[in-house]
Amino acid sequence: MGDIVLIAPYENLGNMAKEVINKNGFNIEVVVGDLSDGVKVAKKAVNEGAQVLISRGGTYTMIKEAVNVPVVEIKINSFDILRGFKNLMKYSEKIGVAGYRNVIYGCDTVAEVLNVNIEIFPFDNEATAPLVIKEAISRGIKIFIGDSIGYKSAMAFGCHSYLITSGKESIYDAAQEAIRILEVTKNEKAKAEQFKTILDFINEGILAIDKQGIITTFNSAAERIFQMRASEVVGKKYGRLFQIPECYRL
Q: Domains in the chain, start-ordered, CATH in brackets?
């Protein structure tokens, strides 16, 4: 896969992302995967060389916790929420707002402006979504608005449901941020490689330690002196491997 991969929780978002990417000439690959499926796609993308990921809602939250590369969020704005409510303006009964907090945040303010009656039902993981929806239904909620998993869960119980979608502006902003992060990441990696090359030409052994006592640098001369490879040392506590005087800590 490419350096930047956008993981869309639902098909329409993926299609819209492709449209934005093609129109602006961005070098970003788009794949579809929601929540746990999105995490699998994310891990595969990182294993294949992706350096920055983009996603939305609960899928973004789960991916961010599962990979060790930067993940950019397609953020939900007031216009996205307004689009979700457009078919419910004349609905007089209570509307259930169900989804991950980073998607449904701001719905209460928009509902107040539109004078619609809502009750918010947030959830923090994929497994609890159907339970939350079931609880909402038991309390008389018949119609829902929410993120991808909230929408799907409500539909699975036979309820009317509307999806809070992301606009092209939000996708564009996320793509631009991902491109900026990729550029910074590549520059930092180039500087690190240059620094490592310089250190490896120095005859003296160099071992650097951060404030937590973790070894961050171990050049070629240090490998020869200590008869240990850098891959065995970097990232480990110096005290477990060497007895180094306090005054030499960096």
A: 4-74+168-188 (3.40.50.2300), 78-163 (3.40.50.10660), 202-248 (3.30.450.20)
